[in-house]
Amino acid sequence: MSKPDNVFQQTGKHIKTGNLTFLTTQVAQWQRLTKMIQPLLPQPEQWQVVCYQNGSLIITGENQAMISQLSYLQNQYVSKLSQLEGLKDLQRIQVRLRNKSISKAPSSEPSKPIPPETQEMLRSAADFVSDPKLSQALLRLASNKK
């Protein structure tokens, strides 16, 4: 059996760039592998390659049921994926759960200024309240500062 190519092995050429070139190459290779394997897997959009080294492919998914199914049918997927260029030496697949990425949606509307009458009511409430912290909070709210 021939020794498998390790496309992620460092060559020592990247000393000056702090391995940035090497890491960029790694990420690009994983993205390429992700695009190659997705059509062959159930629910293609949820899988992502995170590593491929020494015949072991590590992929992540967001659905535990699909991860369990892929793990159970690993041998069939290994034989199917090992026919792809770049995965010829594939021996096993490790599947991990990935947290769903939640992106914060920016607020669509900027906060509106408080009308002058409301500001005056907040100031008078701050004068009326005996608690100094609450009074300060009301004054800050009345001044429209964030």
TrEMBL record:
Residues 99-119 are annotated as: Disordered. This is DUF721 domain-containing protein. The lineage of its organism: Bacteria, Pseudomonadati, Pseudomonadota, Gammaproteobacteria, Moraxellales. It comes from the Bacteria. Residues 102-111 have a biased composition (Low complexity).
